[in-house]
Amino acid sequence: MKKYTIHFLLVTITTALLGFTGLEFTGDSFIRFTCLLSFIGLMVSCLDSVLLSRKKRKANKAARTEKIRVEN
Prior knowledge:
The chain crosses the membrane at residues 7-25, 31-52. This is DUF1328 domain-containing protein. Keywords: Membrane, Transmembrane, Transmembrane helix. The protein is an all-alpha fold. It has one domain (2-71). It contains two helices and no strands. The protein has helices at 5-19, 28-71. Helix 1 (5-19) runs antiparallel to helix 2 (28-71). It starts with a helix and ends with a helix.
């Protein structure tokens, strides 16, 4: 999910600019709905990135600690 963060960000920004500028056209409600969905995807992607990096750091720290114990 981390690799889609930039894609969600770009889609969110473009749909927000199209949907919430006040222009009236057919499909503006669809654009706003797409903006909402891409924003949710962006938030999930960002949270996934943060949570997985914490797990990875914790696992690396545990592995280093175990390696130090084995060497001693």
